[in-house]
From TrEMBL:
UniProt keyword terms in alphabetical order: Signal
Lineage start: Bacteria, Pseudomonadati, Pseudomonadota, Gammaproteobacteria, Oceanospirillales
Ranges for domain Polysaccharide lyase: 110-302
Signal peptide interval: 1-43
InterPro entries: Polysacc_lyase_14
Protein name in UniProt: Polysaccharide lyase 14 domain-containing protein
Length: 307
């Protein structure tokens, strides 16, 4: 599989995301209960399958401090302006063509949301056309964070055709590798999410491992519905540079679904959790990954926490 990887030369100099101190929303209000399935990593993970368990601790948003809650402005000229103003980034692609802003009323939430379009026949930007969108947002509140928590909402349109799969946002550090780039431990990592066939969810990791592309972790431990908001929550605890002791945890609508240990995110202590890798498109690479029709998904309520 292949995905787009923009220039990261300004990764440390981006304008910071807006920071707010309003209270956390109650996860109990989330209405979309996803199906948690027993299972291990998929057969095409690459390298050794990780040992997966279920988190035995409260969601990280309840244990960490809120440090940023960026959101798009209500009346931008276009999607590019919305992303750049709302998330303080100049490192984006597909935002003018494929992103629009929903009002709180349209989103059914207390804040604006991003609607991303996937035009018919598109998949990975390096494959066929440019469907979806992406950007990197450095979050100042995560400066030199060795543990971090990302929480956001996603809503696939009703009847969404998942085809073979596609990318979803996650956390990154350093250069945020993707697109088949080698992860050596001294330049960075990324931990995104993916949807797969029939809406199966998974973590999609670029960490030190034996695989040509990202590592598929925990596929099928939950399933995305369509037509309703789902809250994703991901905690990352970086490893000590000389140890294999990194951790990733996932909660879906407040329900614990996945814990992975013994991860190697880095080999140098200068690598930290830096911010948001917003990345969404169909693919994979090749005709079998492409969306058969115009489709949309909505994203909102991005929140960042740290100990």
């Amino acid at each position: 599989m292949s995905d787009f990887h923009p220039d990261h030369s300004n990764i440390r100099t981006r304008r910071p995301a807006r920071v707010s101190c309003h209270p956390l929303f109650d996860l109990a209000l989330a209405t979309s209960l996803l199906v948690a399935l027993p299972g291990l990593a998929s057969a095409d993970d690459g390298g050794d399958k990780p040992k997966l368990t279920t988190p035995q601790v409260a969601p990280c948003s309840e244990r960490y401090e809120l440090v940023a809650d960026p959101a798009p402005p209500p009346n931008p000229r276009d999607g590019k302006e919305a992303v750049r103003m709302g998330y303080g980034t100049n490192d984006d692609w597909g935002t003018r063509e494929n992103v629009e802003v929903l009002s709180p009323q349209q989103a059914g939430l207390n804040e604006t949301a991003l609607r991303v379009h996937y035009p018919k026949g598109t998949s990975a930007p390096s494959d066929n056309g440019e469907g979806g969108a992406g950007f990197y947002a450095t979050i100042d509140g995560l400066a030199e964070a060795e543990s971090a928590c990302l929480q956001y909402k996603v809503r696939f349109e009703r009847g969404f055709d998942f085809v073979k799969g596609g990318k979803l946002p996650g956390l990154y550090g350093g250069v945020g590798p993707s697109g088949g780039e080698e992860v050596t431990g001294d330049s960075g990592f990324s931990v995104r999410f993916m949807w797969r066939e029939e809406g199966q969810g998974e973590l999609y990791e670029y960490v030190i491992k034996d695989a040509d592309y990202g590592k598929s972790v925990g596929r099928g431990r939950w399933t995305f519905p369509t037509g309703e908001w789902v809250t994703i929550e991901n905690e990352i605890i970086l490893n000590d540079p000389d140890q294999k002791n990194g951790i990733a945890r996932v909660w879906i609508d407040g329900h614990p679904v996945l814990e992975q240990q013994d991860i190697v995110y880095r080999t140098h202590d200068r690598i930290y959790v830096d911010g948001l890798m917003f990345s969404t498109f169909f693919g994979g690479h090749g005709e079998e990954w492409r969306t058969p029709r115009d489709q949309i998904a909505d994203f909102a309520d991005f929140r960042f926490f740290r100990p």
